[in-house]
């Protein structure tokens, strides 16, 4: 006889939580998933206020650029005009559709979906706070053999005078009016993406970053190349720049900078990092170990210091990417309920994770940066190509593409691959498979390219630009 209400109780309906719940239910486990559906909805940050709407807005931002470039190909006519309400409405409709897809997948797998805020009451007990139809609060209590925390992260805004006037990536998609003057604060991939997107949509964008260059942690050459391309496209990128205070005036938000200058904006977007979403979960009362900014600490099996309580995804602050959360969720499911028939148990490795930054132009990267490779291997060989793509020979655009290979000289293995250019993410994904399999530069060289494409450059670079 089962002594628990559920075999697995998942807290959080984002990518990791949904994947774990659905796969565990398919293995025959009794699974519940709790999500406060009145906030983002099923799918978490990625579906509601992250990857998906951001990529949709990135597509939208390309159309004005494409219209301008089309003149070189003989197309004539007036430039298109953005209808901001239409874009917002169409995005909202698609996100609602995806929320329904997630709901159907869960319920179709036999998962019990609960609408409410879950709180860890005891080691095997969860309290769920809900609202009745009449608005009065309600509470339910459930027991579970295993608990998975998958509550994700939330935007972090530092404390300063005027903090209440700023928005985050949660609000940027649905502003009542299009911000003709937008200030973006931050230098990470989220800040760079939104700066590019709204610049492409027609806003005057000023991006402020305290550091010496954007995209800290990426290959240095990629960072400098992208910054130059973004600036060339119209983003007013100001490095070593910080905000002192923000005041609302009749003509907009007055952003006082540390250098004494003032910017006037319709909106100020803070993209200065994300923190684990752990408030109110009751982690302290159970003694669950936490790290910086509240991140849940886990072992290689994603167990907390309480063995039957697990955590995956952004709440652990390891690698904050949707595919990583999905992979971690599958490790937990295989560990608890066994792998799929005929499959070995999943493992998760954090090397060679491909990623893309949907700036204009895109960034795609997999493996080590040049600095990391030098530290790890000592002697490396670099291959590099920079060019104007075939498309832009007629378009009139001055956008350039950068492609870079980093090779461990001793083994000839390709250990880093980086690209700044159109469809970089699509191109790098395929090469990530080759690198995961341990491909050498000789294998790259023996692979025929598809001509004419930008991707063929990765298999036709023959002359090293730097070694040692």
Structure in a nutshell:
The protein has helices at residues 15-26, 44-49, 51-70, 84-108, 189-201, 220-233, 283-286, 322-337, 370-377, 392-395, 424-436, 441-446, and strands at 6-11, 31-35, 112-115, 117-122, 125-131, 137-149, 153-155, 181-185, 204-209, 236-239, 243-249, 252-257, 262-265, 267-270, 274-276, 309-311, 355-357, 363-367, 380-387, 401-408, 414-420, 466-467.
Written description of the protein model:
This protein is an alpha/beta fold. Helix content is 30%, strand content 25%. It has twelve helices and 22 strands. The strands form five sheets. Strands 1, 2, 3, 4, 5, 6 and 16 form a seven-stranded mixed β-sheet that branches. 40% of the residues are buried. The model has no long low-confidence stretch (mean pLDDT 95).
């Amino acid at each position: 006889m089962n002594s628990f209400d559920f075999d697995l109780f998942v807290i959080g309906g984002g990518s990791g939580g949904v994947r774990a719940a659905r796969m565990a239910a398919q293995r025959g486990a009794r699974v519940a998933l709790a999500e406060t559906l009145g906030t983002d909805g099923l799918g978490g940050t990625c579906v509601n206020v992250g990857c998906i709407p951001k990529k949709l807005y990135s597509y939208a931002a390309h159309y004005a650029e494409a219209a301008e470039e089309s003149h070189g190909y003989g197309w004539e006519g007036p430039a298109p005009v953005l209808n901001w309400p239409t874009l917002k409405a169409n995005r909202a409709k698609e996100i609602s559709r995806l929320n329904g897809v997630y709901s159907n997948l869960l319920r179709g797998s036999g998962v019990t979906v609960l609408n409410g805020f879950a709180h860890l009451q005891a080691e095997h007990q969860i309290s769920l706070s809900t609202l009745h139809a009449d608005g009065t609060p309600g509470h339910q209590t459930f027991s579970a053999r295993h608990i998975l925390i998958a509550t994700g992260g939330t935007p972090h805004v530092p404390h300063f005078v005027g903090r209440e006037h700023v928005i985050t990536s949660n609000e940027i998609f649905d502003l009542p009016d299009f911000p003709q003057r937008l200030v973006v604060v931050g230098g990470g991939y989220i800040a760079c993406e939104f700066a590019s997107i709204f610049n492409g949509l027609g806003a005057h964008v000023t991006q402020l970053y305290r550091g010496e260059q954007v995209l800290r942690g990426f290959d240095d050459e990629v960072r400098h190349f992208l910054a130059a391309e973004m600036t060339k496209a119209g983003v007013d990128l100001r490095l070593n720049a910080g905000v002192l205070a923000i005041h609302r005036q009749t003509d907009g938000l007055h952003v006082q900078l540390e250098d004494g200058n003032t910017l006037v904006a319709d909106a100020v977007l803070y993209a200065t990092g994300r923190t684990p979403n752990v408030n109110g979960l009751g982690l302290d009362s159970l003694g669950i170990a936490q790290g910086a900014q509240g991140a849940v600490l886990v072992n290689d099996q994603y167990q907390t210091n309480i063995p039957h309580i697990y955590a995956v995804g952004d709440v652990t602050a390891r690698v904050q990417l949707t595919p990583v959360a999905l992979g971690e969720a599958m490790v937990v499911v295989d560990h608890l309920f066994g792998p799929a028939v005929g499959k070995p148990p999943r493992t998760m490795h954090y090397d060679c994770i491909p990623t893309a930054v949907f700036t204009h132009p895109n960034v795609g990267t997999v493996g080590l940066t040049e600095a990391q490779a030098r530290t790890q291997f000592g002697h490396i060989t670099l291959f590099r190509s920079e060019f104007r793509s075939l498309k832009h020979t007629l378009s009139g655009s001055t956008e350039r593409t950068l492609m870079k290979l980093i090779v461990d000289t001793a083994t000839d293995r390709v250990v880093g691959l980086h690209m700044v250019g159109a469809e970089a993410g699509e191109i790098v994904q395929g090469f990530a498979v080759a690198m995961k399999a341990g491909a050498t530069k000789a294998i790259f060289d023996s692979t025929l390219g598809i001509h004419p494409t930008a991707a063929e450059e990765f298999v036709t670079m023959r002359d090293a630009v730097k070694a040692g």
